[in-house]
């Protein structure tokens, strides 16, 4: 962080106009993070304590099947907010026994199928465009998540740390 701030400061000295704009953007991003991050940390603490590992395994774990895939997509469509908020939650889901494909779908749905976002898309781009994009997105996301899970599985024990349960007891 110090290196980034130093680089920004140095570049601002060389390119004053662009540097000022970069500093303004950086400050706005910092304020957003300072506002959102504490709430995310509280939610992560609540999720870690209140959501039992068995519940996650039952509905989003290896045996959850197509229902787990669809639930992961649904869970990803509900929240609003930037994608970086979803990463700690995704990590917690993995630690609690969710399968990789379901976490991939959760993150992907958060990124591109949020309900408020879909309503805006429908309003400005029309039902045909929205239906086509949404249909293609969901159709492509499921095979992508399953492929990512297969690749993850074949990466060996290091990549499968969360799946082996070695870390899961701490998250229960």
| Range of helix content | over 70%
- Number of DSSP strand runs: 0
Number of domains: 2
First-last Cα distance = 32 Å
State the low-pLDDT regions, or none. Answer: 164-172
| Separate helix tally | 9
- What Rg do the Cα atoms give? 20 Å
Q: Quick one: biggest sheet? A: none
Structural class, judged by helices and strands? mainly alpha
What string, H for helix and E for strand, traces the elements in order?
HHHHHHHHH
**What is the overall shape?**
globular
Instruction: Output mean pLDDT.
Output: 86
Portion in strands: under 5%
Keywords:
172 residues, mainly alpha, globular, 9 helices, disordered C terminus
What would your notes on this structure say?
The protein has two domains: 1-50, no CATH class; 51-171, no CATH class. Helix content is 81%, strand content 0%. The protein has helices spanning 2-14, 16-50, 53-60, 65-77, 86-95, 100-112, 115-153, 161-164, 168-171. Helix 4 (65-77) runs parallel beside helix 6 (100-112). The longest helix is centred in the C-terminal third of the chain and has 39 residues, at 115-153.
